[in-house]
Each structure stands twice: as structure tokens, then as C-alpha cells.
Amino acid sequence: MKIQKRMIRNLEYINYKFRHLVALIVIIIVWLGINLLIQKLDIIPRFLLSFFLMVFFVSFSAFLIRRLGIALLLIIMSFIAIKSLPDLVGLGYIGLLSIIIVGLIFEFSYLILYMKNHLVSLDIILAITLSFASIPLWTGLLLSPTLVSIKMYELLNLILLDFFVALAAVLLAFLLWFHIRVSRLIVLFENAP
Question: What's phi and psi for 41, nearest 5 deg?
Fold first, then answer.
């Protein structure tokens, strides 16, 4: 009975308002602008900063909007709008499939964690960090499972790098959210009809 009540409460989380879609579009425009500025960097700093920004903006949107499916929607919209997402450059439909898998992993893990303990901020931090750290694994498995088994140590290094960068990005997004969550603009955004 308790699980059904929690599921019903979570299903009410899905309804989107027009302001949520406007917020997503604004986040993508800001993300695209910053991403265009960092394209002049060398390849390794550009990769790390692009990945950091990807996790930061997805986690900030999850903190801001707090609706089930919003991170997956942002990831898909950003994949279409931003052509230089890290780990996915030039992969086409395999990159889109990989990012959809990561978004679904985030949404399911967030839902499971939310049903367990209701610490929404901690749930978002854990779910985003773990799901985005798995991008190299899913991309590798979709491209070539045999190559993944041959290059396991290199893949583990990339997963660990993505894990720590994702953790830093989601913690920074949480700190920003924690600082501005009581500001007038955010309160108006959350309470608008």
C-alpha cells in the first residue's frame, strides 16, 4: 500500500508546465553559448570542461525543475542542439542511443532512490554521478563489445575520470542551487501558475 501511494505521488511529478520548457530552453541556450566559447581550448581540457558543463547543466535543471523525465528531455534536446557533447562527438545515432540509455538510467535510479528515502538532493547527486560516469561504458558497448573487453583498463580509467568530474559538477550545481533556491526569481518560478 505504501509503495502504491509513493508511486501515485511520483506520477504527479510528471506533469510539465510551459515555464518548465522555457527554463529548459534557456538552460540549453546558456550551455550552448558557454560551449562555443570553450571550443578554442586543447582537446583534453575541452573534453573535461564540456563534460563538466554537461553534468552541471543537467543536474542544475534537475534541481530547478524537479520533475520526472526532465533530465532525459534536457539531454535529448541538448544532443540535438549541441554538436560537441563529450564522449559522443561524431557517433550519430549510437551517441543518441547512448545518451538516452544514460538518461533512462538516471531517471530510474532517481525514482528508486526517491522511493527509498526522499532525500531529493542526495538522490539527484547520486543518480547523476553514477549515470553520467557510465557514458563511456554504454558508448563502448554500443560501438564494439569486443573492444570493451580488450581495452578494459583504459575504459575503467575513463569511467573513473567521468565519475570524479561528474561528482564535482553535480556538487557545484547543488551548491549553486542551495544558494539561489530562496531567491525571489526562483520562488516566483516555482510558484507560478
Answer: -75, 165
What is the reported pTM? 0.85
Buried b / exposed e along 154-175 (16+ C-beta atoms within 10 A): ebeebeeebeebbbebbeebbe
Contact 88, 79 (CB under 8 A): yes
DSSP assignment, residue 178? H
CA-to-CA distance for 73 and 61, rounded, in angstroms?
A: 10
Over the stretch 49-72, which tens digit does the pLDDT of each residue have?
A: 988 998 999 999 988 888 888 888
Give the whole-angstrom CA distance, residue 108 versus residue 155: 24
With beta carbons less than 8 A apart as the criterion, state whether 19 and 189 touch: yes
Task: Please tell me what DSSP assigns to residue 83.
Answer: T
Distance CA 129, CA 56 (A): 10
Domain edges within the chain: 2-191
pLDDT of the residue at 67: 82
